[in-house]
Design goal:
The protein has eight helices and no strands. It has a single domain, classed as Serine Threonine Protein Phosphatase 5, Tetratricopeptide repeat (Alpha Horseshoe), CATH 1.25.40. The protein has 210 residues and is mostly helical. Helix 1 runs antiparallel to helix 2, helix 1 packs antiparallel against helix 6 and helix 3 packs antiparallel against helix 4. The longest helix has 26 residues. Its main location: membrane.
């Protein structure tokens, strides 16, 4: 994935997480979704034009499209009021692709990004449960997980890559996996806590579905 694109994945996951827990209105978040989604459709198209049929470059571009289409879809939902079931089922497709790309990253010797792609697969599966299956009780859990992993899996690795200091190794990969599990456990706890407050879960879901 493009280092610059990865940096903005961190930004948009953070914003969309805040939207899901009700901190940011959906229409406000839509603007950045259009910016980042557009960037992650235009950039991989340019990359593919210049790829010269290089399989590694094409694989990286394919991953960018998965993110770009998601964010454009989110932005469109905010401004049109269309329900989110289509995005939910698309998220299931993204989740499955992320699992496969993670396996490929392991096969290519990059265990860290193998783990990162699997963490993203969990997040997109939560989007599927929330929007595709209407599991509104998972709204805050999904939002908090997006917030917690936004910088863990995107912003921080992007800066490491931009500085030329990235090195994939077993210790780094295990640490990333452990932090991903901790983020999921914390998100489940925070989501359970939110369900006990006066704000209904449907209000967070509505921010992305309408």
């Amino acid at each position: 994935m493009s280092n610059v694109g990865l940096l903005y994945v961190g930004a948009i996951l953070f914003i969309n997480g805040l939207m899901l827990i009700g901190v940011i209105p959906g229409k406000s978040a839509a603007i950045l979704n259009f910016f980042v989604g557009g960037m992650q459709v235009v950039l991989p198209t340019i990359i593919l034009i210049q790829a010269n049929n290089d399989p590694a470059i094409i694989l990286g571009a394919a991953g960018l499209y998965l993110f770009g289409f998601t964010y454009l879809y989110v932005g469109i939902l905010q401004v049109t009021g269309v329900s989110g079931e289509g995005l939910g089922w698309f998220s299931l497709f993204v989740s499955a692709c992320a699992v496969v790309i993670g396996v490929i990253q392991f096969a290519l010797g990059d265990a860290v990004f193998g783990v990162i792609w699997w963490i993203w697969a969990v997040l997109w599966f939560l989007f599927f449960l929330l929007l595709g299956l209407g599991k509104e009780s998972l709204a805050h859990t999904t939002g908090w997980f997006a917030i917690l992993i936004s910088h863990l899996t995107a912003t921080i690795p992007a800066f490491i890559l931009l500085l030329g200091r990235y090195e994939s190794n077993a210790a780094f990969a295990l640490g990333m996996a452990a932090l991903g599990v901790i983020a999921l456990v914390l998100s489940l706890a925070l989501g359970h806590r939110a369900r006990g407050t006066t704000a209904p879960a449907t209000s967070a879901t509505a921010s992305i579905a309408t």
